[in-house]
Amino acid sequence: MSTVDLKGQVALVTGGAGGIGAAVSRRLAKLGARVAVLDLDAAGAQRIASATGGIAIVGDVADPGTMPAVVEQVERELGRLDVVHLNAGIGGGQTGVDDTLDVARYRKLIGVNVDHVVYGLCAAVPALRRQGGGKIVITASLAGLTAMPSDPLYTLTKHAVVGYVRAAGEVLARENIAVTALCPGFVDTLLLGAAKEEFDAVAFPLLTPSDIADALESVLAGAASGQAWVIQPGGRSSAYEFRGVPGVGGGQLPPDVVLGRVR
Ligand SMILES: NC(=O)c1ccc[n+]([C@@H]2O[C@H](COP(=O)([O-])OP(=O)(O)OC[C@H]3O[C@@H](n4cnc5c(N)ncnc54)[C@H](O)[C@@H]3O)[C@@H](O)[C@H]2O)c1
């Protein structure tokens, strides 16, 4: 029996039409929330929204205008916003380590995997403040904690997300807003593409989207803000314990230092 009760609450899930986002949308609805399912895939978003009694929203999360407009639409149509899962993401699709770099593809990757997270969090915070707090969960990856040599650019984006969550999570905790990164190993979704056959050939253990929904439910039950949760097949998910860095104060900056602020 879950301790998480989202009755009367409203959730927004990006990339909610497929894979992890669809499983999470279903779980949030089962826990009592009304769910707004945002995706590029209109038919898929509508299918999950219909199955969960929520609403479908079509949009590109990499577009700077999308997340503010979506948050506004969710508050207007569903009355409030309490839980946000910034989950949409794509793979790098290229080596990213020599002059074959496809810049358009790289910018797209940054748009979906990094910009979307920043736009989404910044748009959601005022809405969560209006409820006196809330939860923001972001799908990073194990590639946000370890190197994935087969996809350095994907590794770059997911490390960026984990760093953002750790820093923003600390600031927003003061306002009762918890921010958490999910860091799953490989999950059996369409994102794997042709690699799925290679995993199957060596019987590599894959997570299921429902494993990620389980971890998200544990996070909603009370993760401290700023944590990155490791999700691996066969194990219980839990917060990754970062080592301190050598040197003064374990590498911590004084709290009010903002780099780049005009003097
Ligand atoms: N599958 C894995 O092995 C794995 C492992 C770790 C982390 N992740 C992360 O999990 C998240 C979800 O991936 P998944 O495995 O469920 O993949 P998926 O491809 O099954 O689902 C991703 C969903 O995001 C949507 N989407 C993609 N680009 C979009 C955009 N610009 N705007 C709106 N929607 C968009 C897609 O239409 C799709 O419905 C991603 O952030 C991914 O990086 C996946």
Low-confidence stretches at least 5 residues in length (pLDDT < 50)?
none
**SS class:** alpha/beta
The helix/strand series, from N terminus to C terminus, equals: EHEHEHEHEHEHHEE
Using the alpha-carbon principal axes, give the shape: globular
User: CATH H-level name... which superfamily?
Assistant: NAD(P)-binding Rossmann-like Domain
Strand ordering within the main sheet: 3-2-1-4-5-6-7-8
Taken as a percent bin, the fraction of beta residues is 15-25%
Q: Sheet with the most strands?
A: 8 strands, mixed
Distance between the ends: 54 Å
Taking all Cα atoms into account, the compactness measure Rg is 18 Å
CATH architecture: 3-Layer(aba) Sandwich
Q: What are the distinct ligands in this entry?
A: nicotinamide-adenine-dinucleotide
Total of domains: 1
CATH class: Alpha Beta
> Which fold name corresponds to the CATH topology?
Rossmann fold
Helix segment tally: 7
Describe what you observe in this structure.
With 263 residues, this protein is of the alpha/beta class. It has one domain (10-229): Rossmann fold (3-Layer(aba) Sandwich), CATH 3.40.50.720. It is built from seven helices and eight strands. It has helices at 19-30, 42-52, 66-78, 103-130, 152-173, 195-201, 209-220; strands at 10-14, 34-39, 55-58, 83-86, 134-139, 177-184, 227-231, 238-239. An eight-stranded mixed β-sheet has the order 3-2-1-4-5-6-7-8, sandwiched between helices. β1, α1 and β2 (34-39) form a beta-alpha-beta unit. α1 (19-30) runs parallel beside α2 (42-52), α1 crosses α7 and α3 runs parallel beside α4. The chain is globular, with a radius of gyration of 18 Å. 45% of the residues are buried. The structure holds nicotinamide-adenine-dinucleotide. Nicotinamide-adenine-dinucleotide (NAD) binds next to α1.
